[in-house]
Design a protein that fits this description.
The protein is α/β, with parallel strands linked by helices. It folds into two domains: about 280 residues, 4-Layer Sandwich (Metallo-beta-lactamase, Chain A), CATH 3.60.15; about 180 residues, Rossmann fold (3-Layer(aba) Sandwich), CATH 3.40.50.10890. Helix content is about 30%, strand content about 25%. It has 14 helices and 26 strands. A seven-stranded mixed sheet has the order 10-7-6-5-4-3-26. The longest helix is centred in the N-terminal third of the chain and has 26 residues. Pfam families: Beta-Casp (PF10996), Lactamase_B (PF00753), RMMBL (PF07521). InterPro entries: Beta_Casp (IPR022712), MBL (IPR050698), Metallo-B-lactamas (IPR001279), RibonucZ/Hydroxyglut_hydro (IPR036866), RMMBL (IPR011108). This is Metallo-beta-lactamase family protein.
């Protein structure tokens, strides 16, 4: 015979849902065990890739893990959502106690200034490199918002008849500065108490300098629950970065699934794969190589790899133009935190002095210099943002070279469906740039050795750290539905029976 024994979760229950029940055998002494109250709500990156935002609540403490911008929504849909919520957020910003930030990319950090604008008064906890890179990315986003606001409201010679409504998620540099004053840096591998009963530990995740898996530990009366958030999982032996580190066993696991249905195609060392392309496109056939690349992370991996190639191969003197002010600033951050790079990078720097600078490298400081290299007639390599060829200076370079059969556009990462990069990869004969329809005469190539995301094997390896008999639930996030579904099937076959794919706003009591 079983009977119900209840205890309260330190709150005054408003209805029966607030009462916690535990069944116990009536033949045994009745012991009332403390039950830890935790609730997890998925407010972003739920059955989509961007907008990471997860709300973890205990009895009296609320943690927001990541606070990212949602790029999956069109602007009009985003506006409709914000109007319905009467806020950028589906919750009261002032009720959040702490934000934990896995890494700096905008789809994880991009709404932090808006959180402060709407009343958040707590701290943002992250690693020191994440803090530095986030400051750069948020200021870059603020500058973009300011330009769009100027265009909407009219500036200079062009004046609009009336000011248009400012999007709720726009912020300016002042908001970024105010937010960054509340960032608190922590070290990898050290346990920090952020509340009387809540501790956190950050573990290297690869993917980007400073990126972390975060383990949150909640303890009451000697009873402990652990939940881990993967952040974005990197890949082993990636240029510059530490390999993703194993985390301890947890009760609940939140795991990204970006490459849940994909395996990386290239298995060569990055310098071997890139050297082959350079030899074919710039030496055997004197031409120019255009590489769309994200300014933070990807460009640093490319510059480091090019430095290694020029040190180790007897290549002719081919100019390399790095065309992104944000990439230049980010490279300085990588240099500043050299102690957190992998052993190969440290050894290369010890032997050669510089990780990124080499004789043929030229940083382009302004838009005028960027346009001027269209007149450079020698073989060269141009690295510019963005990586998906969606906005940024790269659009100019693609436009100027797409009709040149002696030019090659090399895609080195994932491009979302519908972006210009996606259209190039998928072999479209004509593309439209800035309203012009242009025939594709340039060569289009792709290598994935510089992708910062772990593939399906890497994701499965991360999950397998957990004992399938002990982990209570695995949540898949940060991926397209197809990626999640395939990864879920694989994990189920490995014995992990309770694997969820939460919808936006779906809430779980843990």
């Amino acid at each position: 015979m079983l009977r119900g024994v209840y205890c309260f979760d330190n709150r005054t229950p408003s209805n029966n849902k607030d009462i916690k029940w535990r069944l116990t055998d009536s033949t045994q002494p009745i012991v009332i065990h403390p039950i830890i109250y935790m609730k997890l709500t998925f407010w972003g990156a739920a059955q989509q890739v961007t907008g990471s935002m997860f709300l973890l609540e205990t009895d009296d403490y609320r943690i927001l893990v990541d606070c990212g911008s949602d790029f999956d929504l069109e602007e009009k849909d985003r506006k409709a959502r914000y109007d319905e919520q009467k806020s950028v957020f589906p919750f009261e910003a002032s009720m959040i106690n702490t934000v934990l930030l896995t890494h700096a990319h905008i789809d994880h950090s991009g709404n932090i200034p808006n959180l402060y604008k709407e009343g958040f008064e707590g701290r943002v906890v992250c690693t020191e490199p994440t803090m530095a890179l986030t400051a750069l990315l948020l200021k870059d986003a603020a500058n973009l918002h300011q330009k769009r606001l100027n265009a909407r409201n009219g500036s200079g010679k062009r004046k609009s008849k009336g000011k248009r409504e400012i999007p709720k998620d726009y912020f300016v540099e002042k908001n970024v500065i105010e937010a960054m004053e509340n960032f608190v840096p922590v070290s990898f591998g050290q346990r920090y108490r952020i509340a009387d009963h809540v501790s956190i530990t950050f573990y290297p995740a690869g993917h980007l300098l400073g990126a972390a898996h975060i383990v949150v530990e909640v303890t009451e009366d000697g009873v402990r629950k652990r939940i881990a958030f993967s952040g974005d999982i990197g890949r082993s032996d990636y240029p510059l970065l530490l390999d993703p580190q194993e985390i301890p066993e947890v009760d609940y696991l939140v795991c990204e699934s970006t490459y849940g249905n994909r395996l990386h195609e290239n298995h060569e060392a990055p310098e071997e794969a890139l050297a082959k392309v350079i030899r074919r496109t710039c030496i055997d056939t004197p031409g120019r190589l255009i590489i769309p690349s994200f300014s933070v992370g990807r460009t640093q991996a490319l510059l480091y790899t090019l430095n290694k190639i020029y040190q180790e191969n007897s290549f002719p003197s081919i100019k390399v133009f790095s065309d992104s002010p944000l990439a230049y600033s980010s490279t300085k951050v990588y240099e500043r935190f050299g102690r957190l790079l992998n052993k190969k990078a440290k050894k290369f720097q010890e032997d050669n002095g510089m990780l990124f600078d080499f004789d043929n490298l030229i940083y382009l400081e302004n838009a005028e210099a960027s346009r001027a290299i269209s007149n450079y007639n020698e073989p060269c390599i141009i690295i510019s943002s963005s990586g998906m060829v969606q906005g940024g200076r790269i659009e100019h370079h693609v436009e100027a070279n797409i009709g040149n059969p002696y030019a090659t556009i090399l895609m080195v990462g994932y491009a979302s469906e519908g972006t210009l990069g996606w259209r190039l990869i998928n072999g479209q004969d004509n593309i439209t740039i800035r309203g012009k329809q242009l025939p594709v005469m340039a060569g289009i190539e792709k290598i994935d050795v510089f992708s910062g995301h772990g593939d399906q094997n890497d994701l499965v390896k991360f999950v397998k750290i957990q004992d399938p008999e002990k982990v209570k639930k695995v949540f898949l996030v940060h991926g397209e539905k197809q990626s999640m579904t395939e990864l879920q099937l694989i994990i189920n076959k490995l014995g992990y029976q309770d694997v969820e794919m939460p919808m936006r706003g779906q809430q779980y009591e843990l």
